[in-house]
Amino acid sequence: MSRTSTPLPSGDEKVAAVRSMFDTIAPRYDLVNRVMTFRMDVGWRRRAVGALGLGPGSVVLDVAAGTGDLCLDLVRDGYRPVGVDLSMGMLQHAHTAAPLVQGDALRLPVGDALVDGAVSGFALRNFVDLCAVFDELARVVRPGGRVALLDVASPSNPVLRMGHAVYFGHVVPRIGGLLSDPAAYRYLPKSVAYLPSPSVMLDHLRAAGFGAVSRQLLSGGIAQLICATRRVSTAAEAGG
After folding, report:
1. What's the domain count of the chain?
2. Using one digit for the tens of pLDDT, what is the confidence trace for 34-47?
3. Which one, 126, 164, 191, 234, has the greatest CB density within 10 A?
């Protein structure tokens, strides 16, 4: 985790900060992503969509859809995506024909068990309450449905971890500052501190009502893909 002299925002302050930040960086968001990941982000998203394993025509919710990159990959694989994002600025710069709506991941504008799956790209650390988001995913995804969630990670190899820390902590903010908003890309490395440990995240998913939970490291461990299947029922649901 990154150590910072200024505490990261939480609660309503974090919601406002995240919305404002993404509104600001929306015009050049895709460009910065391609440059700072050397286009590896394209392959990561395709891996996430490929991991869903749902039937053609399945409805898949893209949570924190941003400019719609994952929606494009979902359409390419024969799915019917619907995107939700907190930032209206990001939605206004979207380049997908999929239906998009402004909304909060903690209160998804979707009925119970109405989607076949859900994806999210590099947004887990930006949510105010990750457990509540997992609960919402369990609510809207039908039993047997799948979720595929991407986010950053830290390599387990100490040499790779050191190099990644230098790049992510010092080079990425400079790239973002040159191409977009400096403050936003200073926040990016710090925001990793919001993520719980991998084992805790997987436990949270299980507690929310998901099984077959797995975590895969991508590109030497700089990104992670978390997948799970919505269980038919949970002990809590059976007793309720």
Report:
1. 1
2. 999 999 999 999 99
3. 126
